[in-house]
Design brief:
Layout lengths: L1 E5 L8 E2 L2 E2 L2 E5 L3 E6 L7 E7 L3 H10 L4 E2 L14 E4 L9 E11 L2 E10 L4 E10 L4 E10 L5 E14 L4 E6 L7 E6 L3 E6 L10 E8 L11 E6 L5 E7 L4 E8 L6 E3 L4 E3 L3 E6 L2 H17 L10 E3 L1 H4 L5 H13 L4 E4 L30 H12 L2 E6 L3 E3 L3 H5 L20 E3 L5 H17 L3 E6 L21 H19 L4 E4 L17 E3 L6 H11 L8 E6 L12 H8 L3 E5 L7 H23 L1 E6 L7 E7 L5 E8 L21 E7 L13 E3 H7 L19 E8 L2
Parallel strand pairs: 24-25, 24-33, 25-26, 26-29, 29-30, 30-31, 31-32, 32-33
Antiparallel strand pairs: 1-4, 2-3, 4-5, 5-6, 6-7, 8-13, 9-10, 10-11, 11-12, 12-22, 12-23, 13-20, 13-21, 14-15, 14-17, 16-19, 17-18, 18-23, 19-20, 27-28, 34-35, 35-36, 36-39, 37-38, 37-39
Helix pairs in contact: 4-5, 7-8, 9-10
């Protein structure tokens, strides 16, 4: 990375109006951010966008006037929004910060610039951090707040970052939804007023909205062209993203922890560190910003982010709570016969005094139910080895049920409002453990550590969280710290995960929270992947996975082939289509194989074999979204390409069926125009091959014209259906 302090460096003793003028460039291979940070003056924002030339850097201040603080504080300009608002010990609610020092240090994974700010009157300090990661076009920014005042200071607002975005025809892309309908894409033009995207669940923060957004700067969002800024708050708890557009020339973007009911009392000498906001810029549209996020995620923000993921069968939709030794052995044998590599036993395997047959008991009692599994986990691992697959297991460690031995022993461990009965969740008995409590942290860590110590052959853990915080109160925190509850819960969770990862760095852990409730970059450094949604319906997954791909790479997106009719929508979708959708993420299965026909098993076996061939391209390649299902044109399409552009995988799904309909012909992207690509269809079910099967086309032709996809499959009459999908493998001719 290259950090250049420009236009009168610290080492240049040139004073302007009594201040040492200093502009600082924070640069990545293709982007520049420039801030003005004169010692004794204000920290102001100047520029963020495409990489600047030395000439542009020299003259940038004349073109981009330094009028907006890079980290605005409350009290001396009360009419505008602020990133930080406090109440000093003497009751004063104002801040007035000035730059006291700027420094840059090199770390093994990148470089960090720190701008140190101090209040002009009070011994109150804010350090603003900017970090670049080697080989990526992402800048992470966050703050550290501290003071030496005699009395504690109350932090009433503590956003991580602020960015002014020049008004024009600016559009916002963001994700919303609900359980089983996560990752829905919304795109809207920014207009005067305030746009707030927030979460208050306490545990799961991505069901109803996401802490990531994209700004298209020059008109309606385009996938592969146009200036685009992406922002992702790396936090697992309650958040607030806000765009304030009033009467000036800028949209004002803030991102950070949701301060609602979370005022934080900061004692003298302690620090409050805000979560990072990751920023990226691309002139290659939404997909360009996505590719930047994906590379950053694989290299730095996802556990084992560049190791290919195994193809698994999860037991949940196959048997639900009906776990037994023989049934698990049969499912292992079935997935092994189809070429799978891992079997995961889901909920229902545990419980001593209280048996886990439904969702209303036993959470916290992590002992094997020998009534269901007489040979225990040892027997399951034995059977996995016999069948030639790895073994994984489900846990929900942050939760308990009031019907459990854990709750009977430690009722004080749950989150509960003082003087009130607990509000109960799933099954009418579920409660959330108080992770602010170090004893609870130890309990959760020991659960994982004991499992891995007793059964070191466990290869995979599915970590679930099926309840939000529904009543405010911590039995551990003191009365004057109750407003710290949300923040301390996630600090405690992170401490647990750090301990687990320090001891078990290679263990694969899936981040699941009632489906896609925890797809965020605050937790993903400790997880290898996440469950996109409890909804496995392939048609709806086209939409959900499309939106989720804006910020998260395919290697992190668990996508499973499920049964028909689907267990959530009850829609009947042919297996071919279900396979083609699942193969666009981390392929797995969520089905009972013994209920499949031999023909269906053969189709899945072939798909698994072909997915293994394209797995490096899908999981480690560059994503180009081509035709959005949200355009309502009846088709969706995307493509993954290797960085070398020598191999690619093209996906095409019809999203509706009408007689004599007209669909757009999809042009490809991300190929080398000077290379020739041979076309091979994967997962073919047609009675005859496509006209262009085995033919070769230039990258230039494919990107200018695409290939005409037949609207329907050519099948025997009794197999015809109203779905159509294609997966094409493109390999550069030698």
């Amino acid at each position: 990375m290259n950090f250049r302090k420009i236009t009168f460096l610290l080492s240049t003793c040139l004073f302007c109006s009594g201040l040492l003028a200093q502009n600082v460039e924070i640069s990545t291979p293709n982007t520049s951010m420039v801030i003005s940070a004169p010692v004794g003056g204000n920290l102001n924002y100047l520029y963020y966008g495409a990489k600047l030339s030395p000439t542009d850097l020299e003259n940038i201040e004349s073109a981009e006037p330094s009028i907006y603080s890079a980290y605005p504080v409350y009290g001396m300009n009360c009419q505008v929004e602020s990133a930080l608002a406090v109440k000093h010990g003497d009751g004063n609610m104002s801040l007035e910060m000035e730059v006291v020092n700027v420094s840059t240090r090199t770390e093994k994974d990148g470089e960090v610039t720190v701008v140190e700010l101090k209040d002009k009157v009070y011994p109150f300090y804010v350090d603003v951090y900017y970090k670049t990661l080697n080989g990526t076009d992402v800048i992470e920014t966050w703050t550290e707040v501290k003071h030496q005042e005699k009395k504690p200071v109350v932090l009433n607002r503590f956003q991580s970052a602020y960015l002014p975005i020049r008004r024009g025809d600016v559009w916002l892309s963001h994700l919303s939804g609900s359980w089983a309908n996560e990752g829905k894409l919304t795109q809207e033009r920014l207009e005067p007023g305030v746009k707030i995207i927030k979460n208050k669940d306490g545990v799961r923060n991505t069901h109803t909205a996401h802490p990531e957004v994209m700004f298209s700067l020059d008109g309606k969002p385009q996938e592969n062209s146009g200036a685009t800024i992406g922002a992702a708050l790396c936090y697992s708890g309650n958040y607030k993203l806000m765009v304030d557009t009033h009467d000036d020339e800028y949209h004002h973007f803030f991102a950070g922890i949701n301060e609602e009911n979370s005022a934080y009392t900061l004692p003298k000498g302690e620090s409050f560190v805000t979560p990072a906001v990751a920023l990226t810029y691309s002139d290659e549209g939404l997909s360009g910003s996505s590719r930047n996020f994906h590379k950053w995620a694989r290299d730095y923000k996802l556990a084992n982010g560049n190791q290919l993921r195994k193809i698994l069968l999860n037991s949940w939709e196959g048997v639900y709570f009906d776990i037994n030794q023989e049934g698990m052995d049969q499912m292992m044998s079935d997935i092994a016969s189809m070429g799978g590599e891992l079997f995961v036993m889901d909920d229902g395997w545990f419980g001593g005094k209280y048996q886990r047959n439904t969702d209303n008991s036993s959470l916290g009692d992590w002992v094997v139910d020998t009534r269901k599994l007489p040979d225990g986990i040892e027997g399951l691992i034995r059977d996995a080895k016999k069948n030639g697959v790895k073994f994984g297991i489900w846990i929900e460690p942050e939760m308990s049920n009031t019907t459990s031995e854990l709750y009977e022993k430690h009722p004080e461990w749950i989150i509960k409002a003082p003087q009130r009965e607990p509000v109960l969740g799933r099954g009418g008995t579920q409660v959330v453990l108080d992770l602010a409590n170090p004893q609870v942290q130890d309990f959760i860590y020991n659960l994982v550590d004991d499992l891995m110590t007793k059964y070191p052959d466990i290869d995979y853990i599915k970590w679930d969280a099926n309840m939000g915080i529904q009543n405010h109160g911590s039995n551990y925190l003191t009365a004057d710290k109750q407003s710290h509850m949300y923040i301390e819960f996630h600090r405690g969770l992170e401490k647990v995960l750090q301990r687990i990862r320090a001891k078990y760095p290679e263990l694969t852990i899936q981040d699941c929270a009632s489906g896609g409730g925890r797809a965020n970059y605050g937790l993903l450094p400790y997880f290898d992947e996440f469950w996109v949604s409890d909804n496995t319906d392939a048609l709806q997954r086209v939409y959900m996975q499309w939106g989720t791909s804006y910020f998260f790479p395919a290697i992190a997106m668990a996508s499973h082939i499920s049964a028909a009719p689907n267990h959530q929508t009850f829609r009947t979708i042919p297996l071919k289509y279900r396979i083609d959708v699942a193969m666009s993420g981390r392929l797995g299965m969520e089905i009972q194989p013994k209920n499949m026909t031999e023909e269906e098993k053969a189709l899945c076996k072939n798909a698994i074999e072909e997915y293994k061939m394209i797995r490096p391209i899908v999981q480690l390649g560059d994503l180009y979204r081509l035709q959005s299902p949200y355009d309502n044109l009846g088709v969706a399409s995307l493509l993954y390409a290797t960085p070398e552009k020598d191999k690619a995988v093209f996906y095409w799904w019809k999203t509706e069926q009408f007689v004599n309909q007209h669909l757009p012909r999809v042009k490809m992207a991300g190929l080398d125009p000077n290379k020739n690509y041979k076309v091979k269809e994967l997962n073919r079910v047609d009675n005859e091959p496509l006209n262009f099967e085995g033919k070769t086309f230039s990258g230039a032709y494919l990107m200018a014209n695409g290939l005409e996809m037949p609207y329907n499959h050519k099948l025997d009459y009794h197999k015809l259906n109203d779905y159509s999908s294609r997966v094409l493998y493109l390999e550069a001719a030698q």
